[in-house]
# Entry
Amino acid sequence: MRMRKKRRSGERLCALRALFVEEKGFTGVFDSERPLRLEIGCGKGDFICALSKKEPDYNYIAMERVDDVIVVAAEKYAATRDLGCLDYHGGWRAPDGTVYKDVTWDIPVEMRGNVRFMNFDAAELCEYFEEESLDTIYANFSDPWTKNGYANRRLTHPDFLARYLKVLKAGGRFCFKTDNVELFDFSLESVENEAGFELTFVSRDLHSSDRAESNIMTEYERNFSSQGIKINCLEAVKK
# Structure
């Protein structure tokens, strides 16, 4: 389902621009050096907000190509880190009461936490990440691209898997979840046929598996599971 157009999304993105990465390389982006993880298609940010707090010994990049979606994720993250809230009259209200409207708040690095956002397409992955720079890549409930001729846009198409292998460290993980059975079958076959990956976990009913307790749900996942739809999951490790 396409998200409704957000009011003043450009203005809202501007206010929290300090939480975004726009150039290749991440030197000085975070307040300390930690292993780096990436979520492709972060949606409204539920997953990355929860994971970054649960496992704080990592730095995270949340990638999303749609402006109206990533602005919600960035605002949600900022709110969970006590960095303020949306102002009723527009703009972002910082904890000290200052409202940033059409201007970027230069958030002190030590206050920014361990998540940064990238407003880019996953096809550009290798343009922004160095080889063997990532510890883990997450792809949750991505577009299944079911129309004929669109399979190469799926995030588990062999072309994307090749990109992941370039930027993942040896032993790095690729984690994938979806409610779509057709997409999962395609993804499972793609990963099994990719010599650089070794499957380490497969479940067609994640919430009944031994990983259910440690699983972090996205907004889509909560909606699907509440309807009785089973969640498919796979994890692969770069050899």
